[in-house]
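Thread: quick sanity check before group meeting

JM: Hey all, I'm pulling together slides for Thursday and realized we never actually wrote out the predicted structure for the chain we discussed last week. Dropping the sequence here so it's in one place. If anyone has concerns about the input, flag it before I start.
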Amino acid sequence: MKKMQRIKNIDAVTLNNWITENKVKIIDVRDPFEHKSSSISGSINIPLSEICADHEHFKASDNKKIVIHCKSGRRSNLACEKILEENPNIEVYNLTGGIDSFKSQGYTTDTSPDTMPIERQVMLTVGIIVFISSLLSLFVSEQFIYLIIFVALGLMNAGITGWCGMAKLLGKLPWNK
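JM (edit): ok, ran it. Output follows.
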């Protein structure tokens, strides 16, 4: 049984120092649409679902420290666990608080002005569905209330589990690639 190495955490200040000193390779494990909308300059996007210790970026680190980040630190922590489970000899660091903490320290990120964040796309889509379904249930058939209930259950599931099917679906649309 492999002994799992403890995950090393760093803060945004340390990461920024490593970036300034050109000592780091940054891996962003968010989905591509999240990475496209806002990213740490020079970061490489490898979604959590595709992360593995055999990936080329973990084999050739160019003597640079490897820092993994996501939005808030939860997914990047899972990525670190997975990598260390597969190969405990790889030295990886988790950015505590993710890109949110990096931004909150005042460090700049690359942003795409033409991309609406996926959270806003979900809110807009949910609002449209609920509004139209409400009108349809009032003026066409009471059966449309079930669509509102379905959407509400989806939102509750997203809130409880952190997994949002609508965000995943919207993420596959061409403008989110």
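AS: nice. Residues 118-176 form one domain. Residues 3 and 34 are 33 Å apart (CA to CA).
JM: adding both to the slides.
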